[in-house]
Design goal:
Order of helices and strands: EEEHEHEHEHEHHHEEHEEHEEH
Oligomer: single chain
Shape: globular
Strand content: 15-25%
Structural class: alpha/beta
Number of strands: 13
Length: about 300
């Protein structure tokens, strides 16, 4: 492309995207859209995943509802004509495997002639790098300078080339410092889980979730669910969860999961919410780390 205003971005599938001008009308998966909104880029609409229904899950939405961003429903059953009528010039999704978009069939974007960017949220990248990539995309789209700068700085530790796991400046650093201090003061075993019903629960493997791995790096004693099938979760009964003897349970607070009002007590553990699809922005993860710090000290 020879146009001086040509725009380009390479996503985390290695797909090089290009346009004759900076995309202005974005449609995004809810998690991606909420992160971009935090970073100064407002989508014209968002869509959900196969776990979502016809209404926007407020836990996953971040500030999208307050910003009045329309919700189109689950991506896999998205009405292509309705999507096309929004005249998007970029679709933004996430990827867990580095190969395919998670919530929208890539063929949909091809059929309506719109480029699709997919950013990694899987465990092949540390949380800091995930946040940085959303910052890079927001910057490429003309997002708010301060917020985008914070995202990059959080992920690089303020150093050229980046420091894995580092943080500097912005809202995440003080939240991480508070969490590290709280973890050093108490010896609390923390179990992350997603309720599946009165007889079944999915227990998170901490290394499989970038934010849980980051909790471990900050000194939180995350509990392993034990051997068994499942790369991200071990599916078990609630008695198994109780036998792990957690002091704090982080429960999946999304609408598709069973909350603490509907699942049995896990021993004598306290409970605190965990959104496995927290928007990858400095502001959202600062709130998460601060909330966990407070929960540890209760």
């Amino acid at each position: 492309m020879s146009d001086l205003k040509a725009w380009g971005f390479t996503d985390d599938r290695g797909t090089a995207l290009g346009a004759v001008r900076v995309p202005e009308r974005l449609v995004a998966y809810v998690r991606a859209g909420a992160a971009l909104l935090d970073l100064g880029v407002t989508p014209v609409a968002v869509y959900g995943s196969g776990h979502d229904g016809e209404g926007l899950d407020p836990v996953k939405a971040g500030e999208l509802g307050a910003a009045g961003v329309p919700y189109l429903g689950p991506g896999r059953v998205l009405d292509e004509a309705r999507l096309g009528s929004l005249r998007p010039d970029l679709i933004v999704d996430v990827t867990y495997d580095g190969k395919s978009a998670y919530a929208l069939d890539g063929g949909v974007a091809e059929r309506i002639g719109v480029p699709l960017a997919a950013l990694s949220v899987g465990n092949e990248l540390p949380l800091t790098a995930i946040i940085a990539r959303f910052g890079e995309l927001a910057a490429a789209l003309g997002g708010a300078g301060d917020a985008v700068g914070e995202a990059a700085e959080e992920a690089t530790g303020g150093a050229v080339g980046g420091v894995p796991g580092g943080a500097a400046g912005g809202p995440v650093a003080p939240a991480e410092a508070a969490l590290r201090a709280a973890a050093a003061r108490v010896d609390v075993g923390v179990l992350a889980l997603s309720g599946a019903g009165p007889d079944q629960v999915h227990l998170a493997r901490p290394h499989a979730w970038p934010e849980l791995a980051r909790l471990q790096e900050l000194g939180v004693r995350m509990l392993e669910p034990g051997p068994g099938a499942g790369a991200n979760w071990l599916t078990a009964d609630w008695e198994h969860a109780a036998r792990l003897n957690p002091g704090l349970v982080l429960y999946d607070s999304r609408a598709n999961a069973v909350g603490p009002g509907a699942f049995p007590p896990v021993g004598h553990a306290r409970v605190a919410p965990w959104n496995p699809e927290t928007p990858p922005s400095p502001a959202a993860y600062a709130r998460f780390f601060q909330d966990i710090a407070e929960a540890l000290l209760l």
